[in-house]
Amino acid sequence: MVDASVNAMTGPSGPKPKRVFSSTNIIIYGTLLVACLYYLLPLYVMIVTSLKGMPEIRVGNIFAPPIEVTTAPWTKAWSEACTGVNCDGLSRGFWNSIAILIPSVILSIAIASVNGYALANWKFKGSEVFFTILIFGAFIPYQVMIYPIVILLRESGDGITSFIRLFDSDAPNFRLMGSVWGLVIVHTIFGMPILTLLFRNYFTSVPEELFKAARVDGAGFWGIYFQIMLPMSLPIFVVAMILQVTGIWNDFLFGVIYTKPETYPMTVQLNNIVNSVQGVKEYNVNMAATLLTGLVPLIIYFASGKLFVRGIAAGAVKG
Amino acid sequence: MAVTDTGQVKAGAKKPVRLFKNMTAKIAAVPMILTALVVFVGCTTWTIYHSFTKSRLLPAPEKWVGLDNYDRLWSESRWLISIENLAIYGVCSLVLSLVIGFILAALLDRKIRFENTIRTIILYPFALSFVVTGLVWQWLWNPDLGIQNVIRELGWTNFAFDPLNNANIVIYGILIAGVWQGSGFVMVLMLAGLRGIDEDVWKASRVEGIPTWKTYIFIAIPMMRPVFVTALVIISAGIIKVYDLVVAQTSGGPGIASEVPAKYVIDKMFGSQNLGLGFAASTMMLLSVLVVLIPWAYLEFGGKKNG
Predict the structure, then answer these.
(1) Helix (H) and strand (E) counts for chain B?
(2) What is the CATH class of A71-314?
C-alpha cells in the first residue's frame, strides 16, 4: 500500500512509452502482416478446400470459407482414395511411413551419437579425416550416389541370403533393396553427417574433467557413454529426434527409389493419389490428403517450438 | 585437446600395439568409416568412373567411351532446358530468399510485439515437405479455380498468371512455392546473425546520427558476412537438389518446360534405363556443387590456418 502511494506520486519509472502509430511502426507491422498473409495463405486454402464439397469448389472462390462444412473428403482421403488399382487411401502410406520412421530414427540417432562421442572424446588416428569426408559428403547431390547404393543393397541382400542358407537351406530370399530395411539403412547413412556434427559439437562442450574423472574410476568407452554422456545430453537427443522425424517423414526421393509400391511412404503415395491421371480431379480430397501428410511435421513443429529452430540451425553451425 | 592428441599419436606411432589402443572407439566408429569411405567416396567415384563408360543397363560389360556421354548430354534439348531452369530458379531463389530473409529478420529484430507468433508463422512452411508444398501451390495456380480466377473476379479480367499451362513462366510458379517453403529458414539464420551484433554498434550509430537503414546496409550486413556465406552455401546445395517440388507441382510439364537436372538424372537412371547419360548428368551436378563448395572451403578452412 505504501509503495503504491509512493509510486503514484512520483509517476511510472519505466521508459517513456513510444507512440504506437508512428510511421516506422506502421511500415514494420504492415510489412510483417503482408508477409504473414503470404505464408499463411496456402495453409488456409488447404484447410477450407478440404472442408468443402466439390460443387461448392467448382462455382466458388478458392479463398471463401466453406458454406457447408463436410468431413467427407478427409475420410475419403484416409481410407478410399485410389492409387492405380489400390483403393485403400492414404492410411496404407501412413502406416508404411511409421514403419520406416521408427527404426530409421532409432538407428540413425544411435549410430550418430556414438560417432559424435568417439569423435569428441576418443579421437583416434584418422578420425578427423573421416569426419571431414562425412561433412563434405553432406553436400554431394544424392543423385550421384543413388545408383551404386541400389547395387550395394541388392548385392548385400543376396550375400545375407546365401549366408542364412548356410544354416537353413530353405530360408526365403532376404532383400534389402525394395524393403523397409534398405530404406532404413539409406536414411541412417544420409542422416549421419548432420547428426554426427550435432552430437560431436555437443559432446565437445561437456567439461573434460567429468570424462577424466570417469576414466580414473575405471569406466570404459561404453560405460562413460551410457552412464555419463547419455543422461547428460537428453536435450540434444530430442533435437536430433525432431530433425530426423521431420526429415524422414518428408523424404520423397529415397522412398521412390528404394521401396516398392506396397511399401511406399506417405509422401510418395500422396503424390500418386493427387497426380493420378485417372478419374475426375477431386480437389477437396486432394487437399485433405495433402494436409494429412503435412500434419505430422506440423504437429512436431508447433509442439517443439524453439527446439525445432535449434535443430535446423545445427546445420548452419560450422563444425 | 587436439594438439595433445596428435602429439600422443605421433609419439606412439612406432609401437605396433598402438593399432589396438582405443580399439572400442574404432569398432564403434565402423559405421561412420564405412559411410565415409564406401558411400561418400566409393559410390561417388563409381558414378564418375561409369559416366565415361557405355552402360545402358547394368550389369553389362563396360566399355570405355571417353566423353561420349557428355557429348550426348549437352546436345540433348531436355538437359539444356533443365540447366536453364536450374539457372533461373537458382539465381532468383538465392536472391529472393536472402533479401526476404534479411528484411523479415531485420523487422523482427526491431523489438516488436508478437515476435514469437510471427516467427512461428514465417517458419512453419519449412517443416512441410516439398511434395506437400508442390501440391498446395499446384492447387493455388489452378487456372480455372485458383488465384488467377479470384483476381479476375475482383475486376482485372485480363489478369493472367497460369504457370501450370504456360511453358514460359512455369519455373516462376515453382520458384514462388520454393521461396515460400525455404525463406523462413534463411530468416532464422539472419535473425541469429543480427542478434549476434553488439548492442553498442546500434548505440554508436544512433549517437552519430546515422539513419537506421544505412546502419543496416553499411554496418550490419558487412558484420554478418559469415552468416550470408553460410546461408549462400546451404541454399545453393538445396537448389541443386530440387526434385520433389517439381515432381509434385508440375511433373516437369507442360511438356518438358519445367525439367530440372535432379529429375533428369532419376528419369534417365530409373525411367529410360539410360545409365550412361544419367551418370554423366549426375557428375555434372557434382561439378556444380564443387564450384560453390571449393571456394567456400578454401575461404573457411584455408584462411584459418594462415591467420
Answers:
(1) 18, 0
(2) mainly alpha
> Most distant CA pair in chain A: distance in Å?
95
The residue with cell 504473414 is A36
Domains, chain B: 2-50 (no CATH), 71-306 (1.10.3720.10)
Is B83:B261 a contact under the CB 8 Å cutoff? yes
Angle (deg, nearest 10), helices B130-140 and A266-274: 20
What are the phi and psi torsion angles at A228 (to 5°)? -115, -55
Which residue in chain B is spatially nearest to A294 when comparing CA positions? B128
How many Å apart are CA B198 and CA A235, to the nearest integer? 28
pLDDT tens across A94-151, in order? 999 999 999 999 999 999 999 999 999 888 888 899 999 998 898 899 999 999 999 9
Residues composing chain B: 307
% of chain A surpassing 70 pLDDT:
91
Distance between CA B13 and CA A94 in Å, rounded? Answer: 53
**Set of chain B residues whose Cβ sits within 8 Å of the Cβ of A130:** 29, 32-33, 36-37
Comparing CB atoms, the residue among A35, A130, A313 nearest residue B36 is A130
Nearest to B131 among A252, A302, A305 (CB): A252
Residue B88 is predicted with a pLDDT of: 95
Structural domain boundaries in chain A: 15-70, 71-314
pTM, whole model, 2 decimals? 0.88
Give the ipTM of the model, two decimals please.
0.87
Q: Contacts of residue B147 in chain A, CB cutoff 8 Å? A: 62
Contact B286 A220 (CB under 8 A): no
